[in-house]
């Protein structure tokens, strides 16, 4: 898609431009262009994204980059049951995570109780704090 000044824009960028010019906020849950469209918190999604399987993507009609978005993982109440934490620790090469698993889970619960989820960079910081 080309805008008036000759720059290439995806539909997400175009919708942000319209939002800015019109003053009408795009709801975060709006299909395709909402901020939460490619936000994944389910244990299954997070685990497969960490493992780079992404088998569940066959149910997504388009890729995030096609519309100018990016996939984001968040950790919330449904990802505190162990496997997503284990896969993320393995990805960060933290072999001794089991010693600290309860502490990591408690720290995640504390953050989730305040703001509903933990972003992937925040989660990595928590793990790296225990990895030392």
Any overview of this molecule?
The protein has 132 residues and is mainly α. The protein has one domain. Helix content is 45%, strand content 6%. The chain is built from five helices and three strands; from the N terminus they run H-E-H-E-H-H-E-H. Strands 1-2-3 form a three-stranded mixed beta sheet. Helix 2 packs parallel to helix 3 and helix 4 (97-115) runs antiparallel to helix 5. The radius of gyration is 18 Å and the shape is elongated. The mean pLDDT is 80. InterPro entries: 2-IPM_HCS-like. One of its GO terms (biological process) is coenzyme B biosynthetic process.
Helix content: 40-55%
| Biggest beta sheet summary | 3 strands, mixed
Low-pLDDT runs: none
Structural class: mainly alpha
- Assign an overall shape: elongated
By DSSP (H or I, 4+ residues per run), the number of helices equals 5
InterPro entries: 2-IPM_HCS-like (IPR050073)
Helix and strand topology:
Blueprint: H1 11-22, E1 39-40, H2 43-50, E2 72-75, H3 83-91, H4 97-115, E3 118-119, H5 120-131
Helix pairs in contact: 2-3, 4-5
Features of this protein?
132 residues, 3-stranded mixed sheet, mainly alpha, 5 helices, single chain, elongated
Give a brief rundown of this model:
With 132 residues, this protein is mainly alpha-helical.
